Amino acid sequence: MTALVDEHPRLGVECVLRELHIPSSTYYRWRRAEEEPCERRRRDVELTGRIKEIHAESGGVYGSPRVHAVLSREGVHVGRKRVERLMREADIAGISPRRKGFTRRDPKATLAPDLVERDFTASAPNRLWVTDLTMISTGEGPLWLSAIRDAFSRRVVAWETSARADADLVLTTLEYALASREVEPGKLIHHADHGCQYTSIKLTTRLVRAGVQTSMGSVGDSFDNALAENLWMLIKTECVRGRVFATRAEANLALFEYIDGFYNCRRTQERLGWLSPIEFEEKHYTKQATAEPTNLNTRQPSLIS
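The structure assignment produced for this chain is given below.
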């Protein structure tokens, strides 16, 4: 309204206000509010600036829940509704996922039972791993991505890419995961779908040698391997969508920056108490270490008879 009055200075303030049926006291109150904003409005400007920074640092991924969580971790006391309003006024928004499946079943393969039954929870790291394949388009042709995700912390424990979606790709991913994690034989479940890569002799033999239990859901059913499908939605939404990769190497670099540089170490998740996967695991191990009995006061048997 004040801008409209300023656009017609020759008419005079009172004349414009009279035509618009607006009391002059109301106009001058608005004018004072613009020239001397109240504390809440000044605070909104400060918050909006920090919200824009958080949103940019996430690569444009974070919506209001995660922005609010980051502000809370920084000690900023602000309501979630206020964050939503400021993001809406600043035209800032997160992004939403899409999905598409690619694995194919081998009708002749021997299938493992479903040991998970859609319960993608674990009491500790390295108790349940979920895995799957997806495809990323590049100018050189398809780039196949294989990844293994820990159900406890949602961490991507290993990932690998290849121009071919074969058993060697998923086997290499498994080798990386086994090499980077402390796996107790007999305590880990490796869950996949019925894709021919996961029913291959190469992979099943390696799992047996490592003492890992094999579990399988069905092909084409996103619920049977929901945790792995969720990872693809995140990657396709937050890393791949809207980008054109000229080469496979370019796509590989983008995946590295997202998975190892952002998702595992910095991307907060509501189910993890707004911690990143690595932070959640560190918290678990710290709690476990402090809970161990010291046994410092345990009496030793006397040597004097």
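Interim note for the steering committee: The chain has eleven helices and five strands. The CA atoms of residues 168 and 202 lie 8 Å apart.
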